[in-house]
Amino acid sequence: MFAGLAWALATAVSALVVAAFARFAPRVAGLIGLTGTEMGAHWWFFLVGAVAVVALVVLALLVGVLAVLTLPRLAALFVPVDRTFPLYGVRHVAQQIVTGVSNARFLVLLLGDSSFITGYLKGLGYDLDDLRQTGSNFGTQLRQESPRHARVGTGTIVSDGLRMMNTELSHDSFRIRPVRLGRDNFVGNDVHLPPDARIGDDVLLATKVMVPVDGPVRTGVGLLGSPPMEIPRTGTGPHPNHPATDEELAHRLRSKNRYNASTVVVTVLLRALGVAVALVPLGVSVALWPVWGLWALGPAVFLGPLLLMVWSALLERATLGFRGLQPRTASIYDRYFWFHERLWKLYVRPVLAGTPMLVWRNRLAGLTAGRRVFDDGAALPEKSLVCLGDDVVLNAGSVLQCHSLEDGRFESGRIRVGDGVSVGVRAFVHYSTDLGDGATLAADSFLMKGEQVGPGERWGGNPAEPEADDAPVPDHRSAAAAELPVPVSVVPVLTQPFTEEVFLSRVQQYLELHDVAWATNASVAVLDTLARSLGSDARDDLARHLPSGLRAQVPSLTGYGSRPGQHAVDD
Question: The pTM is what?
Answer without folding.
Answer: 0.74
